[in-house]
Amino acid sequence: MTTATLPAATKSSRPVRWTFPKAASAVGAVILAVVWLVPLLWALDTSLKPEPETTRAPITWLPEAPTADAYRSVIDQGDLIRWFFNSTIVSVLVTTLTLVVSVLAAYGFSRTKFPGRKVLFGLIIAGILVPPQVLIVPLFQEMTGLGLVDTYWGMVLPQVVAPVMVFVLKKFFDGISRDYEDAARVDGASRRRIVWSVMVPMSRPILVAVSIFTFIGAWNNFLWPFIVTTDPSMMTIPVGLANVQGSYGLRYAQIMASAVLGGLPLLIVYALFQRHVVRGVGDAGIKG
Amino acid sequence: MAVETPSRVTPGTSPTAAKAGTGQPWKERWGGLFFVAPFLLLFVLFMLWPIVSGLWNSFFNTSLAGVKQEFLGLQNWQDLFGDPAVWSSLKNTLVFTAMSTPPLVIIALIMALLANRKGLLGWLLRFSYFAPFVLPATVVTLIWVWIYQPGFGLVNGLLTAGGFAEIDWLNTENRAMLAVVITTVWWTVGFNFLLYLAALQGIPAQVYEAAQIDGANGRQQLFRITLPLLSRTTGLIVVLQLVASLKIFDQIYLMTNGGPNYATRPIIQYIYESGFTSYRIGYASAISYLFFAIIVIVAVAQFKLFSGRGEAE
């Protein structure tokens, strides 16, 4: 990221003068940000109202007496905690396995030679074009055959196949000098050792970014878990919440409370890791 | 991307490295396959196999129970071309793509230009613009169904407060798609925004300093320097967005269930319904292949288009 440091260096030497276009763009930026935040705030606002207050017309803004009743009843009704648990297991498994198999494959394609390597890599690259949505029907049949319907593995395994990850990591590995490996090899390190103690530490930033995106993607994945789970106790948050509208009826405070609870974990993850997310999109997106 | 890599790959060192591995020729020749094997196994099981079995199924009359298979030849494929539901759901998918792609590119660009600043304000702007992207589809649609609610929803509340007539967004045929597009733009524009932001931050400051010395004003800098330098990024974003929009399913299924009167049902929902509601596995597989072909054509055409335009790194 050599270029990223340049603007900072030059900007600090020149104090910002507030001119009209600059002020206008700051105001515009803030207005747009507010527009983008309003739906989230409206959901939070609704969730803190007592039920009768949510269906008042004309609409009212802040709750007269904020209450956590909606949250209490949503949690008491049961399944949400279970869905959290399932989502966590599924997302952690998907992220860990995706990283391990993709790093190994990327190393294999970047650094080793074996017959058919180019053809295999080409095949995997072609896999980037395959939308997971077209596989749902045969994949469900396959899962039925394997007895993996309504299991964690049934949800996890198809999500681990991420050809784009292999592609991005291979490109990154290609850019790492071989000198480090050679030095490690002289010291007697095996190739397996080299992957974990040379390549992985050197690719930390991109691996962090890739993990965050894999985790978000797995946590939010709707279609596949929706198809492969029928038992409510096996559902993830997005799938479980899909039935909430029906089961809570028209209790909007409760519906919004469940939406807030369902969205909060990732908003927190994002707030904590924003720097990595922003840089990761740049690295993987522009370079990939 | 020079992260702690002082020297680039030096070709002279690699052959010796390969030889230094082990003495066994077999391991030398095939050893690399072990690194690739775990991914390859999963790739074959959960991508290649379903692709092949899907194609196979499309020539049979298979039900979800999958017991009795009757060879149909090209019957499913013929049915598909004569099925108005295929074409109307395909049309809905294309309409959604055409309506959603321009705002998802243009608003993302505007956001990136506005949020390319340091400090707390920059952080807050980046947080607000991208935050919806990290939410699950279900959370997004729960919120927006509530916002579009007639009577006491936010949008209609604002409309009536402004003296306009209420709109039953999700139950009106020519409004439902617009409602879904608005929700989608709000939800996913953040990703394109980050792609633009990364590209903007990659433009060296010297370029602007040189322009300033030459007397270029802000508007000239924007139209003569920034936008032209972003054209490759725009190409990338348009391709990614077209393909992403064509895959529309979650929001529509959750917000309108394809209605009213199938006016928003996308092709993936029709695949889902054919397979999991009507239990016509073979037929659903044939439609999947039609959709797959469209995605491939769009992606390849776009790739050709903009790799021919310059060096696509």
Summarize this structure briefly:
Chain A: Pfam families: BPD_transp_1. The complex is a heterodimer of chains A (288) and B (313). Chain A is mainly α and 288 residues long.
Descriptive account of the structure:
The complex is a heterodimer of chains A (288) and B (313). By secondary structure, chain A is mainly alpha-helical. Chain A folds into 2 domains: 17-71, no CATH class; 78-242, MetI-like (MetI-like fold, Orthogonal Bundle). Chain A is built from 16 helices and no strands. In chain A, helix 4 crosses helix 16 and helix 10 crosses helix 11. Chain A starts with a helix and ends with a helix. In chain A, 43% of the residues are buried. Chain B is 71% helix and 1% strand. Chain B has a two-stranded antiparallel ribbon with strand order 1-2. The interface between A and B is large, with 121 and 115 residues.
List the quaternary state of the chains.
heterodimer
Helix segment tally of chain A: 16
Count of folded domains of chain B? 1
Provide the CATH topology of chain B. MetI-like fold
- Rg of chain A, Å, rounded: 24 Å
- The residue-averaged pLDDT of chain A reads 84
Strand adjacency order, main sheet of chain B: 1-2
The helical percent of chain B reads over 70%
**How many angstroms separate the termini of chain A?**
15 Å
Biggest interface, chains and residue tallies: A-B, 121 and 115 residues
Shape of chain B: globular
Q: Biggest sheet of chain B, open or closed, and with what strands and sense?
A: 2 strands, antiparallel
Structural class of chain A: mainly alpha
The CATH architecture designation of chain B is Orthogonal Bundle
Q: In the CATH hierarchy, what is the superfamily of the largest domain in chain A?
A: MetI-like
Under the CATH scheme, which architecture of the largest domain in chain A would be assigned? Orthogonal Bundle
CATH topology of the largest domain in chain A: MetI-like fold
